[in-house]
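JOB MANIFEST
job_type = single_chain_structure
chain_count = 1
residues = 305
[input]
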Amino acid sequence: MFEIVFLGTSASAPSVHRGLSAQVIKHNEYRFLVDCGEGTQRQILQSGIGFKNLNRILITHSHLDHILGLAGLLSTFMRWEAIEYLDIYAGKASIERIHDLLYGVVLRNTPAPMPIHLVQIQPGIIVDEDDFSVTAFPVFHRGQDCFGYRFEEKGKRPFLVEKAEQLGVEPGPLRKDLAGGQAVTLPGGRIIQPDEVLGPMKAGTRFVHVGDVGSTDNLVAECMGADTLVIEATYLEEEADMARQFAHLTARRAAELASTCKVGQLLLTHISRRYREKDVLAEAQAIFPNTIVARDFDTFSSKRK
């Protein structure tokens, strides 16, 4: 299961009720901050999630409304909070701009309060843990090196408790070893193989996050079958020409992608203050009913049905 906390859901500039782009993705003890718009450190505090384990930041692209908050966040780490390290993942253009922001403006020959690693990414797996992975994929927006991110739990074979009981495997370390794929020996000397107590492989949760994007042509394969799709909806269809001009999506086009890819739920963000939320929602739900327009501090769970 993945959990997402929306910290900022506005497009381009903050509004009275929406901060700039930032979300936290959680998986067990892991936390990823996706984008870091201006004021993100305050949103983190107000959300109550705190800074613990917030060591990895994924940047979708280099526009200021998605990265300016890194300056304030680093300043906060320098004075009030402590983490062991900070890894920032982004494309080449974003890394260059972030380097200038952090080292040319915030630090300016001052030692960083923790090791900072600016990781220039390419399409492919960028994080690979025991039970999940994070894959970066290219998206089309204004500028170079724009990325979306796919979070995927690795498939698991469910442990069949009834089978274990029939074979005399008591609860405890032996069951844990079998669940981990290791054969075990019972007290009487009988050897039990994992295949005897494990069911067929089941796919894990797939969660896809797309930031600003102007075309969905290359996103179908990336989003197909996702349990949750987070994507922008900066414009309404009545201003589709402007959306194309600035390489953004309308709510309708976001919903059409969700419908084509048969996703479980669609969460819309990057909402322009020129529109009413109910109008954005109505346009998307006419195409894809299981749509929600996210608000700041909304929290959603994503789990394979």
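[summary]
The first helix runs from residue 40 to 47.
Residues 2-155+203-300 form a domain with the Metallo-beta-lactamase; Chain A fold (CATH 3.60.15.10).
exit_status = 0
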